[in-house]
């Protein structure tokens, strides 16, 4: 089954930017585009009954889709306008999509389709990648030598999904992947005899981290031999290291492992920090 790239549209400038981003990505990957709009009947809107309000919603979506079709005449586009809450609509769309593109605003919580806990819930529970795009996203940056920057951590399996997404995206764009592994000094008491032996064999902490990154990248280098790769190992917190590279990124890719708490699903601190402060599009990729 061919999965579409889905864009959540709510009429805001941010969601229109996400729609444009999704259309360009669909063209590059040869995939169809699906546009989803969720709306609610406003009882207190004077002079506008249910059918009138639905007509406004459908016309607003149709206008945005017409503009996309004019820019990408060969792109296959489908539209779904649903009368329901945003969270279940987006959750269903994310399950069925190759990826879900949504608008985000400013250096703060994701808004537009995503409001507070709804946004965190969608990102934390999505089983497919979710890409957040800010208003003012410029297509020219995708062809200006900027890189697809991806965070790698743990062993090869821990970051496999994020690395796969980064390499697939870079291959479609003719871009370089910059794979980043951040590390910090662990407390001495955390060392086990086994870990000490591995570090000794690697020649120390930094060589060990470089080898771990190289090992994680090896299968993706082999699968995508035409994609240039830059490897970067840097001491520091993962979030800070990744954010220091935003100026050279056309897309930032971070993995996430959802964590359930008494107040609902939460994403990891690295994904949370990058989402709130990066001014380029950010792809949050769930672990396999």
UniProtKB/TrEMBL annotation:
InterPro entries: Rossmann-like_a/b/a_fold, Universal_stress_UspA, UspA
Pfam families membership: Usp (PF00582)
Domain annotation UspA: ranges: 1-134, 155-286
Family as reported in the entry's similarity comment: Belongs to the universal stress protein A family.
Name this protein carries in UniProt: Nucleotide-binding universal stress UspA family protein
Organism name: Streptomyces murinus
